[in-house]
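We give its fold:
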Amino acid sequence: MKISFSAPKVPTSDALVVFSEKSSAFKGQTAQIDAAMSGALSKAAKTGRFEGETGDLVEVLAPAGLEVSRVVLMGVGDAAKLTATDYEGLGGKIVKHLQASGEAHVTIALDSMEGLAQEDAAAHLAAGMMLRSYRFDKYRTKESEKKKPTLHDATIACDAHKAAAEQFKRHEAVISGVFLTRDLVSEPANIIYPESFAAIAKSLEELGVEVDILTEDDMQKLGMNALLGVGQGSARDSRLVVMRWNGGEASQKPLAFVGKGVTFDTGGISLKPGEGMEQMKWDMGGAGIVTGLMKALAARKAKANIVGVIGLVENMPSGKAQRPGDVVTSMSGQTIEVINTDAEGRLVLADALWYTQATFNPQQIIDLATLTGAIIISLGHEYAGCFTDSDDIAAGLSKAGAETGDKVWRLPINDAYDKLINCDVADMKNVGGRAAGSITAAQFLKRFTNNVPWAHIDVAGMVWSEKDADLYEKGATGYGVRLLDTYVSSVME
């Protein structure tokens, strides 16, 4: 969607959106529009029992006195209490309502309201509109014309239009990363597999990202047997991709992000149930987030040094597949008994985390992974689980989550949980039993951080949605890119 900003105006075609607060008389542009319609908008509001609550909506088609095709009146509740994410939600609601309406363009008349500065409100409104405009329709060949989106342009008309347009540039850059993440998570496993994913990451070099791709031979020489063991049952070769954005001072130690990239997860020999297995195309969601983040940082030319590392494997059952009971030696030298081959993501991350801390000496490492179903039982689809022994990292991620709507919730880690993965056969086992499954998975990862300040974000409940929301359709959400971009700004810039 193309979004522009202008001074307040009454459009001469297409759709027009105006706002009203809760239990309040019309003001500003809304009052002017109502007057031009000879009070038809206020009459429609009364007839439609419109009270101005957030989400209230009244629509007048072919309004007399105006040349527009329709006027949409939206409630904003108490404007003084609206946050940036609330304005994004309003923008998403506008697109959702008009996307397949037949309208090609919409003008949004945004007055100054108590609370958020108008330029901030307008920029976040535009961000919400752009986020909601995304559709992954690459494989839809028989969609009816009535369901196809028509809305592709929007103008936000407000006094602070110049400042809003300047602010929106950053949102637009970051959203390009969100859309890359959504694309990656949406694609089927016959299109996105380790080599093809690595090629997409390689394309970020066009934006100035340095990209290196490690092959299986490279990883074998480094001793990455934990990662390689997961992919050994697949006909697809595994890859480790290293992305570097060097936007900060040369002396600045980098911040590192590590992503799990299991491009399809059957569970291996510990085979998953067949029902719903098609969803496991998004088990590379952590790697998708890290890749989208690197694009976002490069697109906005972040003044920070960032390393993104993604371990890409396909977990398949075959005569060559890893077996329950196998013991592997990780790059760190620590040995792991593989109790369950479906607890594979932590094996991938074990080597990726160790490689990252050993190679780049980062000031912090944050890993992201669709790691456990247990986190969905704990938190549903409202929060990602956050595990760290750093109060500073936890507070920073929580604040960034509140600002962006990509929320995280901190869960505990400690020695008592760590003991659950001790093993009689090897240094550790890759599962700790049914109790505290998400926590013991985090404890496993912590053993490969070499005491670098670290956090693990379990995004299993967040990268994919089975229902529409204000900022995305059913499908890939793009969760995490804006969270981490905001976190980078708070720590590095």
